[in-house]
């Protein structure tokens, strides 16, 4: 049987078709498979480019979202019952704010123009950072009216996990522009911050710098003086927020420079049973005055010796009690000398002095 021999014949891949004379050569025609592969490759490149653009835009939006969130510029309607107010110690006096009714009236008429700021706690709730009065107004309005529009409050969402020092500083910086925050309230906040184990401040001065570093040096000095007053009088003060600056400085001066002054002021506050801020201020004003120096004693005349001699002398008819002192001599007895003639009395007195002079 004969064997067939196989030969490899190479045909040119691109053989241009001959074109009639006078016509340009025809374009090379690709097969259907090659055209499909080319189209798929182009579609894949377009899809990859689109996906890259989308990822870049998502990254940009994510970074912008984080930036806005950190700045508290992303707002949402947050349920008022999902907000807690116990993370930060508030620099507000206890009790209801007397100006809250005006704020509520404004919210009723025009709504809330400045959202509060909250931090998500990671458990579906929020911690209040700024806006205690605004949140209180919304809660009172919802309780009074039951309207759904007061069940949620506009809130800027602060990024979760910010340092506690930063959150305190946010609150303080907002409240520094308020005119009704007293030096006593600021001093109480400094003490609370220094005592909070979650903060880095170990002393009152460190807390003062951390919270009120942007305030003027003089204002920080005033706050520091009030810290001394609050520390010294403590719970004996019922209305510390009512203490004006000048009175607080006077009290600090007495407490810092007079031993026992703090104890005396505390005792006076306890004894007064002051039930109003005005009554307590009267007690503090009296205690702030420095003790009066005793009036100088008027000079006394030089004292002369004031010796005296007393004795009893037995005479006819009884006993005579005698007292002899400077400038006088007395003799007392039961005898009535008014019945004795004057001449005899004169003679007796003359004889008395003659006897004394003879000695």
UniProtKB/TrEMBL annotation:
- Which cellular components does GO assign to this protein? chromosome
Gene Ontology BP terms = chromosome segregation; positive regulation of sporulation resulting in formation of a cellular spore
Which segments cross the bilayer? none
Q: Which residues form the ParB-like N-terminal domain?
A: 76-176
The reply on keyword Ligase is: no
Coiled coil regions, renumbered to chain? 33-60
Q: Which UniProt keywords apply?
A: Coiled coil
Q: Which Pfam families match?
A: ParB_N
Q: Which domain of life is it from?
A: Bacteria
For this protein, the record's Gene3D superfamilies field holds: Conserved hypothetical protein from pyrococcus furiosus pfu- 392566-001, ParB domain (3.90.1530.10)
Q: Where are the residues of the annotated region Disordered?
A: 1-31, 286-315
Q: Which PANTHER family match?
A: CHROMOSOME-PARTITIONING PROTEIN PARB-RELATED
Which protein are we looking at? Answer: Chromosome partitioning protein, ParB family
């Amino acid at each position: 049987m004969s064997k067939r021999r196989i030969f490899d014949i190479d045909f040119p891949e691109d053989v241009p078709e001959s074109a009639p004379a006078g016509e340009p050569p025809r374009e090379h025609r690709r097969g259907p498979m090659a055209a499909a592969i080319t189209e798929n490759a182009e579609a894949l490149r377009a899809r990859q480019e689109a996906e890259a653009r989308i990822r870049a835009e998502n990254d940009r939006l994510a970074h912008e979202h984080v930036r806005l969130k950190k700045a508290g510029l992303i707002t949402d309607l947050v349920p008022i019952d999902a907000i807690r107010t116990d993370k930060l110690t508030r620099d507000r006096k206890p009790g209801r704010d007397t100006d809250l009714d005006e704020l509520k009236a404004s919210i009723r008429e025009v709504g809330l123009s400045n959202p509060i700021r909250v931090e998500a706690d990671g458990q579906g709730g929020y911690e209040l950072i700024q806006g205690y009065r605004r949140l209180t107004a919304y809660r009172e309005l919802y309780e009074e009216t039951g309207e759904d529009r007061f069940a949620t409050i506009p809130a800027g969402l602060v990024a979760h996990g910010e340092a506690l020092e930063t959150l305190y500083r946010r609150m303080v910086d907002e409240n520094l522009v308020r005119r009704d925050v007293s030096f006593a309230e600021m001093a109480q906040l400094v003490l609370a911050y220094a005592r909070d184990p979650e903060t880095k401040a170990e002393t009152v001065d460190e807390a003062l710098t951390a919270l009120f570093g942007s305030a003027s040096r003089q204002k920080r000095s005033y706050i520091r003086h009030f810290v001394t007053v609050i520390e010294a009088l403590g719970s004996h003060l019922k209305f510390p927020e009512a203490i004006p600056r000048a009175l607080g400085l006077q009290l600090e001066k007495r407490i810092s420079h007079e031993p026992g002054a703090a104890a005396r002021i505390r005792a006076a506050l306890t004894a007064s049973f002051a039930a109003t801020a005005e009554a307590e201020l009267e007690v503090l004003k009296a205690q702030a005055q420095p003790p009066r120096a005793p009036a100088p004693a008027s000079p006394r005349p030089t004292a002369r010796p004031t010796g005296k001699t007393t004795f009893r002398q037995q005479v006819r008819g009884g006993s005579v009690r005698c007292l002899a002192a400077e400038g006088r001599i007395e003799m007392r007895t039961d005898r009535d000398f008014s019945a004795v003639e004057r001449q005899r009395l004169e003679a007796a007195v003359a004889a008395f002095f003659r006897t004394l002079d003879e000695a």
